[in-house]
Amino acid sequence: MKNFSIIVAADEKNWIWKGNDLAWEIPSEMKFFTKTTKTCEEWKQNAVVMWRKTWESIPEKYRPLPGRKNFVLSSNNFSEDVKIFSDFEKILEKISEDEEVGEIFVMWWWQIYSHVINHKNCSKIYFTKVLWDFDCDSFFPEIPEDFKIENESEIFEENWIKFQFLEFIR
């Protein structure tokens, strides 16, 4: 089975969501997300895996996320625009069989992150650290100790918010 990466933005207390949306608006962080999840070998496409609530939080005009193969974890078959599976292992197995998939990204929902961060095939975390406490209601779990920082950007500021890009590898 192929390895996968987690991609996430979290505040300084590891909070990631407020209500059903991000608690901050950082355009360059969204550009980083798009570029990172789209960039791969010319003849391949990356895959993004998300929970149903994440899918529903994406504005309709951006669904499915363009330039990526979209997979949703849900017990309901609610859309024909996306591949839906009720089991994360089955999604990973299906994506691993597809030779046209580059990197696999798990994105945007605490219930998925809590489930997969300790998975044996989770090999990388793209982590945007937002340097503020946004008092959110969903969190990102602690990064396991066997992950080490591979890359660390300078600290940026946009819309009064300071943030930093980190990459952890296992």
Name a few traits of the molecule:
alpha/beta; 10 strands; two-stranded antiparallel ribbon; Dihydrofolate Reductase, subunit A; 170 residues; globular; 4 helices; 21% helix
Task: Summarize, please.
By secondary structure, this protein is α/β, with parallel strands linked by helices. The protein has 4 helices and 10 strands, in the order ββαβαββαβαββββ.
Can you walk through the features of this model?
The structure is a single chain. By secondary structure, the protein is an alpha/beta fold. It has one domain (4-169): Dihydrofolate Reductase, subunit A, CATH 3.40.430. It has four helices and ten strands; from the N terminus they run ββαβαββαβαββββ. Strand 3 (45-51), helix 2 (52-57) and strand 4 form a beta-alpha-beta unit. The longest helix is centred in the first third of the chain and has 12 residues, at 27-38.
Which residues sit in consecutive blocks of at least 5 with pLDDT less than 50?
none
Give the ordered list of helices and strands.
EEHEHEEHEHEEEE
Average pLDDT: 92
**What is the strand arrangement across the widest sheet?**
5-4-3-6-1-7-10-9
**Corresponding CATH architecture:** 3-Layer(aba) Sandwich
Record field, number of beta strands = 10
Radius of gyration equals: 15 Å
Q: Note the main sheet.
A: 8 strands, mixed
CATH domain class: Alpha Beta
Helix content: 10-25%
Annotated CATH topology: Dihydrofolate Reductase, subunit A
Category from helices, strands and their pairing: alpha/beta
**Can you identify the CATH superfamily?**
Dihydrofolate Reductase, subunit A
Q: Could you tell me the strand content as a percent range?
A: 35-45%
Structural shape: globular
